[in-house]
């Protein structure tokens, strides 16, 4: 079958827009088309479809430092993106999907930069035994995508900083990330940069899929495309990014002047469904009231703050203030 290869670049560094465009392209891919979509996100953690955002990422810190949390459709673990990282997505109908062929596009692109890399067998591409590309997959309604990262010169201090597992005790049904030793391609070949990597990907893609190619720097205005806009609303929503976390329990422990607290929460769709507090504080009625008032509240500081502030009329104001100060530093 004759392929219709196409290369699309996103002009945006916003992960919610870029993921929306990826899904939009998937929904619209035609029978003989193979799209290579190249995109970058600035200061972003992307968690897998079935991951616990609170566990996998120091989301509060990330957001305070201007970063964004995103959730993708594909499975797998959490990765960090900045402008030193290039993302690629191959999109096509299921019949044209060929993982080996797609992986060879990346392997040949880096080979042209003098870098010998290989597929690790567990969805990673590695050089010198260290990972520079994590890959993940998605399939729906007869169409598929395979996407991945390419670390060219990312900031690893930030990568480590944001991808730390939470120190709070979380019992979750979701998928855990598989920590790996990472490497930037620039460490292997100092001449390589993002622009060159894009050119190499383009060249390698054309070699693999033919030169009857169309390229378009995609600058679609989502407001003019209701379907894309709808996807953007989904990817940017708290309900998708945090709320889609699989059910989990979390235990938050702290000691205050007035006593110790062990806050046990059960969460579904990011909303507190059960809440129990164990405490040796004198004000046991108030503590019980606090626990029961948290039921039904999204696990989000603003909502918890509203709910607990509503209890403040009564005595024990300092207890509520202390709890809020503590939680403010924990929950985004
Ligand atoms: N950008 C990037 N590239 C490669 N490896 C990374 C990156 N960021 C973090 N890591 C390392 O991978 C593990 C997680 O590995 P794990 O195998 O758990 O997850 C993945 O690889 C998922 C890849 C998803 C690719 C998508 C493509 C477009 S949107 S995101 C993490 O703990 C770090 O050690």
UniProtKB/TrEMBL annotation:
Alphabetized PROSITE patterns for the sequence: BPL_LPL_CATALYTIC
BPL/LPL catalytic domain span: 30-213
InterPro entries: aa-tRNA-synth_II/BPL/LPL, BPL_LPL_catalytic, Lipoate_protein_ligase_C, LipoylTrfase_LipoateP_Ligase
Enzyme Commission number, as recorded: 6.3.1.20
Keyword Lyase: no
A single GO cellular-component term on record: cytoplasm
Pathway: Protein modification; protein lipoylation via exogenous pathway; protein N(6)-(lipoyl)lysine from lipoate: step 1/2; Protein modification; protein lipoylation via exogenous pathway; protein N(6)-(lipoyl)lysine from lipoate: step 2/2
Top-level taxonomic group: Bacteria
An example Gene Ontology biological process: protein lipoylation
Enzyme class: ligase
Pfam families registered for this protein in UniProt: Lip_prot_lig_C, LplA-B_cat
Catalytic activity, reaction form: L-lysyl-[lipoyl-carrier protein] + (R)-lipoate + ATP = N(6)-[(R)-lipoyl]-L-lysyl-[lipoyl-carrier protein] + AMP + diphosphate + H(+)
Keyword NAD: no
Keywords, in A-Z order: ATP-binding, Ligase, Nucleotide-binding
One GO MF term attached to the UniProt entry: lipoate-protein ligase activity
Protein name per its UniProtKB record: lipoate--protein ligase
Source species: Halothermothrix orenii (strain H 168 / OCM 544 / DSM 9562)
Classification of source organism: Bacteria, Bacillati, Bacillota, Clostridia, Halanaerobiales
